[in-house]
């Protein structure tokens, strides 16, 4: 019943197991939580689990569109250091979660690390979905000098879109000046 008490609050990216593939009345499905309890959730709240993939398994254009859409779904979310949910998210949480939701596991910090699929590229080669690295900060390219990130800077708090273009109203000169690396999985 819709009047039943909630078992748990889940955020985007939480993994659930369908107990069977069929909806009961009104679009509800039975799911099993990781602790073994069963409950019901609206079927339209679920998306298929995308297991970790390798870059060679990806269609580049499809992935770039999907990862930027995943990041955009957090627009307006408050900044929270160490966060990685719609309740609060930090810069590396935003980028790593957007990638994870699309099957790619990247290093969850503001640096390029060996053993993870992101490698350095030139700034002029950056495309949507690629990453910008600053001291202690990371952002995702949306193309055309736009980027999305989670920031605690006064006037821009939370997940916002900024620009490297001085003529854009959301220009962030401080970030342009401190950009030290760009990275891509492609």
Helical coverage, percent range? 10-25%
Number of helices: 3
| Estimated structural class | alpha+beta
In total, the number of strands is: 11
Q: How would you state the average pLDDT, rounded? A: 92
Radius of gyration: 18 Å
Q: Biggest sheet: strands side by side, in what order?
A: 6-11-7-8-9-10
Largest sheet: 6 strands, antiparallel
Which stretches are low in confidence, meaning pLDDT under 50 for 5 or more residues running? none
* Cα distance spanning the termini: 47 Å
Can you offer a commentary on this structure?
16% of the residues lie in helices and 25% in strands. The chain is of the alpha+beta class and 186 residues long. The strands form three sheets. It has a six-stranded antiparallel sheet, covered by helices on one side. Strands 1-2-3 form a three-stranded antiparallel sheet, with no helix packed on it. β8 (137-143) and β9 form a beta hairpin. The mean pLDDT is 92.
List its salient traits.
single chain, 186 residues, alpha+beta, 6-stranded antiparallel β-sheet, globular
Quick description:
This protein is an alpha+beta fold. It has helices spanning 60-72, 91-100, 173-178; strands spanning 17-18, 28-32, 38-42, 84-85, 88-89, 119-121, 131-134, 137-143, 146-151, 158-163, 181-184.
